[in-house]
């Protein structure tokens, strides 16, 4: 399966609606949580146990942006073959359903929800992924729907007709 | 205005629909961009000039998640008084409109789009912010609509009736 010489990327044509990518598992340590929050999201409930215990979240928890960035990292790492992505377009309906607490292990899945090509940009297709991020108890902590531009292997195929 | 002894937080009642928060300015250096991307978003066009120059984005650019995290940081830093937040709920319709390139300076605004209280949770209100992130040329690089839980100073006021 693996070719040691050339990298075989996942192109638009290799994707199927309904395909599920398992995201593996990442444990968020106190150091990781405090380090990210110190830089980007310095609320007391992400930095200090006393303040966190007194907060609505009931304990030290990760910045939601941190959870999102780790979900992204897990997605890229766990794609069966490296994704031939040209970058993200954005996402819809991100919801933080539950806090991610110190030493929680997150995982979950990304499901190919839609694949769309256009006649105007035959070299790129839009991949829509539904991400469901869970904790070690199987509870959903975050959901989001992500749109990403993915390279088409053979742009000479008709863009609009090739939409799956 | 500043009280050196007690911190005077921005509570739900202090916010007004239409209020605009200026986000200041942050320059994204090559080191910042590569450091974040190495950890969370290791695509070649965020890491390496040669690959980046050959990519759709035409040069080394920041991870969109990095832009988002910096926008969050600027929001928290530039609130007139520290926001009495209990955490984010999520966001809608995040769009990366243009890449943020090495040494671009981003800024922009957050506008209070909606303020909503419920009878079921009189102690918290939902603040909806429309964020518009721009570069040094005044071009929009990212937009998103963020929902955040904010502490109510006087929960005895009727939640639903107090909705502005």
CATH topology of chain A: Thiol Ester Dehydrase, Chain A
Q: Biggest sheet of chain A, in brief? A: 6 strands, antiparallel
Name of the top-level CATH class of chain A: Alpha Beta
| SSE-based structural type of chain A | alpha+beta
When the domains of chain A are counted, the total is 1
**Low-confidence parts of chain A:** none
Largest interface: A-B, 33 and 34 residues
Count of extended strands of chain A: 6
Keywords:
4 helices, 164 residues, Thiol Ester Dehydrase, Chain A, alpha+beta, 6 strands, six-stranded antiparallel sheet, homodimer
Describe the structure.
Chain A has one domain: Hotdog Thioesterase (Thiol Ester Dehydrase, Chain A, Roll), CATH 3.10.129.10. Helix content of chain A is 21%, strand content 32%. In chain A, strands 1, 2, 3, 4, 5 and 6 form a 6-stranded antiparallel beta sheet that branches. In chain A, strand 4 and strand 5 form a beta hairpin. The longest helix of chain A is centred in the middle third of the chain and has 15 residues. In chain A, 34% of the residues are buried. At the A-B interface, helix 4 and strand 3 of A face helix 4 and strand 3 of B. Strand 3 of chain A pairs antiparallel with strand 3 of chain B, so a sheet runs across the interface.
């Amino acid at each position: 399966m693996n070719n040691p010489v050339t990298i075989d990327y996942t192109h638009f044509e290799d994707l199927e609606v309904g395909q599920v990518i398992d995201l593996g598992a990442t444990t968020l340590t106190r150091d990781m949580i405090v380090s990210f929050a110190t830089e980007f999201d310095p609320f007391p409930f992400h930095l200090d146990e006393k303040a966190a215990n007194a907060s609505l979240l009931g304990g030290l928890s990760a910045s939601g942006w941190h959870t999102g960035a780790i979900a992204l990292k897990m997605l890229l790492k766990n794609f069966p073959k490296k994704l031939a992505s040209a970058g993200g377009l954005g996402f819809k309906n991100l919801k933080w359903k539950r806090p991610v607490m110190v030493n929680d292990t997150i995982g979950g899945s990304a499901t190919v929800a839609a694949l769309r090509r256009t006649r105007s940009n035959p070299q790129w297709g839009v991949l829509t992924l539904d991400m469901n991020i869970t904790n070690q108890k199987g509870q959903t902590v975050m959901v989001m729907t992500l749109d990403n531009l993915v390279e088409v292997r053979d742009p000479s195929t008709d863009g609009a007709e090739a939409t799956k």
